[in-house]
Structure formats: C-alpha cells, structure tokens
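Running this now, will post back.
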Amino acid sequence: MKVALVTGAAAGIGAAIARRLAHDGIAIGVLDILIDDATRVAREIVAAGGRAIPLQASIADREQVKAAVATLRATLGPVTILVNNAGITGFVPFKELTDEQWDRMMQINLKGTFIVTQVVLPDMEAAGWGRIVNISSSSAQSGSARMAHYSASKGAIIALTKTLAQELGPLGITCNNIPPRFVMNTTMSDYSFSLPEMRDRLEPMILAGPIRRPGAPEDIAGACAWLVSEEAGYVTGQTIGVNGGRYI
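Update: finished.
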C-alpha cells in the first residue's frame, strides 16, 4: 500500500483529496495545524475502510514537519506521494501591503512547500518512485487585484513545480501542480466571500466561466487522484487547470 502525506488536510480541498486517495487504496497522513479537525478527517477515512492517521505541524517549521513525517513513516510506511495543499490567503491593496504580510505569505505558502517536499523526498528517492502534486492558484496565472502577495507566492509554486520536475524526473519522481479557480466550501472561500467587497463578486465570477458553477473540493481531488496514479507516470512539470474554463 502506498502512503501519501496531504498537507492542509483538515478541511476543504485537502480533506477531499485525503478522502479520495484513501478511497483509491492509499494510506493517508492527514496533516494540519488544526489537530482536532485532522483527527476528525482521519477517523472518517478509517470508518470508511481506509487507513489514515492525523498529524499536527506548521509546514513552515522544519522540526515540526520532520517529527510529523517520522510518525507517519513509522506508523504507515515510507511516504511516496505528497500533496502540498496547505496555505493561507489574504486581500490587501498593493500600496498598503506590509513587509510582515508579505513575509508571512511567503513563509507559509512557498517556504512551507519547500520544507515539506525536502523532508519527504528521501523516501521517494529510496523507492525510485514518487508523486508530488502542488496546489497553486489560478491567480498565479491571471493575477488578482489586492492579492499581490498571494498570487506571487502561488506563481512561485508553479515555477518550483517545473524545476522539481526536471531535477527529480531521473529519480522516478513526477511533480505537477493544480491551480484551482475559486472552490466553495473551503476555509479560504468561506473567508473570502464573507468580506463585504467580495460578496457581490460571487455571481459574476460564476458567470465568467464556460462551466457556470463554482468549483467543489472533489473537482480538485479527482485531478489529484489521477496525477498520483501509475497512469500519470509520463506526466510531469505540468499545470493542470481545474477552473471551469475560466483561465484557458
């Protein structure tokens, strides 16, 4: 049985990915900073017949990540699938953006992805097989007003994905990224559309795409399930847009 680590897996997209990969027969490390919610997701997976354990760590803290991965490895086995989903968002006009806001966004979204990937990589190298899927954002492709720090961090994830694909491909490891459009029923979307300035944008955003509905966490999970499968072994360095056609 293969073992996957899914970060930010306590809710939303991460939880949907964890459930889908577990349904496909993969053992799951459900990692999140919110351990109670991660525990709930892991219990749901186990109740459905899968294998999963909850793990707590801030992805920006290397020692916490190393401890969580060691627990996962000791409990379920070497980690050969990684889904870097954890991240934060924010809305600030560019001219008001502070150094602290910029640094925190990069620390979690970009450095956190770097840390987790580096910590897990030895297991993939030893196996001669690995799958890495990074969850970026369509804002990295199109830009997004008042989200300079967020879109920049996610654009860096796309560049990192391409670089890792080239560097790790000879080791039998693929690396791809999924940039979602807005996905409902997630912590980020709940926060975003609770803002007064965002509420009136929801319907126009839905109508702006060929597929006129918001995304669901399961939409991202389906694409992720394929990218980590044996069938996608010849796919690497790619950006698989799951966005209803909003960005083509």
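The mean pLDDT is 94. More later if anyone needs it.
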